[in-house]
Design a protein that fits this description.
By secondary structure, the chain is α/β, with parallel strands linked by helices. The protein has 15 helices and 17 strands. The longest helix is centred in the N-terminal third of the chain and has 15 residues, at 36-50. The radius of gyration is 23 Å and the shape is elongated. Bound molecules: adenosine monophosphate.
Length: 395
């Protein structure tokens, strides 16, 4: 069921409580080193301002243990938000205490209030109903725009919308976009639909592989997880990173996947895990005992690029090799280039593949780069999120 979004309701004179994801990285001095998460919340905040409403923003930052910790204060985030919005932003020194309640009550049309870190309260992780009710009572509308936290049932994600009762509960524009690409497009893709899955471990992606095998026309495997599959086929993997305890599972995926599951045909190996070590390119399953596979080989890169080139929908999660250490970035680069060149709807499933796309400068050449790590993976596994399910459906 499509969810009602912040664009689907009358915002005039309404106070909107927005759960955003302001969990930005900071250096030791507390300076924000990457403000993309704040920027990603701007479309929703601007929609509320343009609609004649006002916004109470709540988020977590880091992992404080249910008690105030100045290191994780959202005050610097509020300051940065004011710069990005070219206007003033109020800040409450608590989340459900007297300062937050008074400032939320006094908030007027066009104003923005950032509450202090929700994780400064033990009630956040516990989903405490009393804590949730104080937040719910601050506003007329609840909006979830925190995609990175959507797979969690924290108080601000789940107990608060419940405590809102019959008041509107909607998705923000970021969450709406993520659901569109990571769920809707995957359920009814334009074909051929090709998935490219890589990364270090099969164990992290078993459910993703299983779910995508059921809906894709081809699933291309790269990264270290390819060697666990190679081992399952009786191949030689040398000193490559493998998960010996996942070999049986890899066999099952190979049986289930049949011709849909495509493994590398060659491998770029090195004697040691460093850029200057002796290197060799060998056929898959023929890695010498004293070498380790660190990337897909050039033949694989070429054939994967050709398969991607003929796809109408592409989803990519996980690098093809150790892309942080050239020359073992070549396979990942070739896949990223093929995706950037293709006319297909292209979805980059967060985490390291999002980092790789950014590193190669292709962010503008793909349809969607997911902002979530864990949340993206769970969505690719076909899971739905309780924190989203409880929001209003579109009538
Ligand atoms: P993941 O978090 O599972 O997506 O894994 C990403 C990490 O896997 C990256 O840091 C890569 O450097 C690493 N990786 C990919 N291929 C290999 C490989 N062949 N050997 C060792 N590490 C790899």
């Amino acid at each position: 069921m499509p969810k009602r979004s912040i664009r689907d309701i009358d915002l005039s004179g309404k106070k909107v409580l927005v759960r955003v994801d302001f969990n930005v990285p900071q250096n030791d001095q507390g300076t924000i080193t990457d403000d993309r998460r704040i920027e990603m919340a701007l479309p929703t905040i601007r929609t509320i301002m343009d609609g004649g409403g006002c916004a109470v923003l709540m988020s977590h930052l880091g992992r404080p243990d249910g008690a105030p910790d100045p290191k994780y204060s959202l005050r610097p985030v509020a300051t940065r938000l004011a710069e990005l919005m070219l206007g003033s932003v109020q800040f409450a020194t608590d989340t459900v205490g007297p300062d937050a309640v008074a400032k939320a009550r006094a908030l007027k049309v066009g104003e923005i209030l950032v509450l202090e870190n929700v994780r400064f309260n033990a009630g956040e992780k516990k989903g405490d109903p009393e804590y949730a009710q104080i937040l719910a009572d601050m506003a007329d509308v609840y909006c979830n725009d925190a995609f990175g936290t959507c797979h969690r049932k924290d108080g601000s994600m789940y107990a608060v919308p419940i405590a809102m009762g019959s008041k509107p509960k909607v998705v923000g524009l970021l969450v709406q976009k993520e659901i569109k690409y990571l769920s809707d497009v995957i359920r009814s893709p334009e074909r051929p639909f090709v998935a490219i899955l890589g990364g270090a471990k099969v164990s992290d992606k078993i459910n993703v592989i299983g779910n995508l095998l059921a809906v894709c026309d081809k699933v291309l495997i790269g990264g270290a997880m390819a060697y666990t599959f190679s081992l399952a086929q009786g191949g030689g993997v040398g000193k490559s990173l493998v998960e010996a305890d996942k070999v049986e599972l890899a066999k099952k995926l190979l049986d289930d996947g049949g011709a849909k599951l495509v493994l590398p045909s060659d491998t770029h190996c090195a004697k040691e895990f460093n850029a200057t070590s002796e290197r060799v390119i060998v056929s898959a399953g023929e890695i010498p005992d004293d070498f380790q596979g660190l990337d897909i080989g050039p033949k694989t890169a070429e054939s994967y690029a050709a398969i991607i080139g003929s796809a109408k929908t592409v989803i990519w999660n996980g690098p093809m090799g150790v892309f942080e250490m050239p020359p073992f970035d070549l396979g990942t680069r070739a896949v990223a280039q093929a995706i950037a060149d293709s006319q297909a709807t292209s979805i980059i499933g967060g985490g390291d593949s999002a980092a790789a796309i950014a590193q190669f400068g292709f962010e503008d050449k793909v349809t969607h780069v997911s902002t979530g790590g864990g949340a993206s993976l769970e969505m690719l596994e076909g899971k739905t999120f309780a924190a989203v399910d409880i929001l209003d459906d579109l009538p």
